[in-house]
Known about the structure:
By secondary structure, the chain is mainly alpha-helical. It folds into two domains: 214 residues, MFS general substrate transporter like domains (Growth Hormone, Chain: A, Up-down Bundle); 210 residues, Growth Hormone, Chain: A, CATH 1.20.1250.20. It is built from 20 helices and four strands.
Amino acid sequence: MTELIPEDPSPIATTDQLSSHLQKALWGQPFGLWIASLTEFWIAAATYGMQSILILYIQEVFLDPNTIGSVYGGNFLLWLSNALYHPPSLIGVGMSGAIMALYLAIIYAMPLLGAFLADYLLGRNLTIILGIALSSLGLALLAIPSLFVVSILIFLVGVGFVGSLKAQVGSLYSETDRRRSDAYQIYSIGIQVAVMFYPLITGRIALTSWKCAFILCAASMLLACITYVKGQKYFPPSPPISWTKLSKNSKVKMTVLEKKHITLILFITLLFAVCSLPNMELNDGYLIWAKEAYAPIQIFWYKFQVSDLYSLDGFISTVTAVIVLWFWQFYDKHNKPVGDMGKILIGTFIACLGPLILAYASFKYPNPHQVSLWWGVLFHTINDFGFAMSTMIGLSLVSRLAPAKITTIMISVFWLHICLCNILVGKLASLIETIDASTFWLLHSGFSFIGLLGLIFIAIYCKNLLPQEKNL
């Protein structure tokens, strides 16, 4: 349970204390899970629909010499991106990639701010509603070129507030309820379905109208707001929180065990930042490599574009997420349940194998446009199986380890691993022009394997700190 009054360490309210709405279930899961999943579907549709065309918009509109001078805050954004990534040109492809990398790093860091507001100032429900509203406003303002920087900032703040929704999923379960792992995988399926379809839609609309594409994303975010507001009754209420600033006397006190759990979460976060490199590279260096490596492919009248790899991965990851969810439910029903850490180790090992496929394909076909897309399908399949068995289950593990008083903050800290990973991804992607492709992908596999060794160390020497599974 994560929806708690700070002074109350109990994991979840008793059944007698729950309203009939909170006790309502569908397909063996609390009804609140399905509300959260549908809300996240619309949020993901808006976010990834916009994100799939953002780098093209930056390159074609924002960095257009006739536009950039009229963008509020545009010069500051150029200065900051240049200071961090040093692209070859201030208005070239390198700068658009630098701005995109900066965006990806910030979007996964902002939930920490939202978590603090949710736990100590506004409460989760109000924070989530405010976040969705701000995100919708930011997406709508993207339709105005001169407000590009302002709209992105508003959107990033809104997305940060919405991050509390992930913690609210955990509030529907007790700490030892093994359905929690399944819940986060179900929750992730909604995201994958959105990734599968929305980039195709927004990408085609953007070919004729950037404004219409961004307005569609804003409308999707409004649907998320309506879904969440209507379904609030299926979540535990936010605890009463003081609006005054935290004083030294109100400082949250932690037990020795809770401090150990916090330290463990920090180490897990750092290791996940390294283990996630193969998956996070899909947004950066992989697309650069794919543009030069994959052979042209056309299905009937449809010519496959590199940008369509975004949707291809969304489709494969949806299928693999469903298979993984079914497999662990079947396995746990007929065998001794495997703990979260065991599943994470298996998933991380599988993820290490994905880049080896691309390394071999690059070695076998060194010339441009020779690699069959089927090699890519194999890579995506292996990578997505690993992702389904590690990242979302890692979220479940952290939600169990986190002290009840600061669960939302610790979950947001865990999501910082994606922020850190994107910084590493940007550095590795800069090497793609200086090293051969096989070495490039071998580096990803090697770093991921190093992270796996760290997780194995935790599984062996920190076993007593890890939560134990409990059968229903």
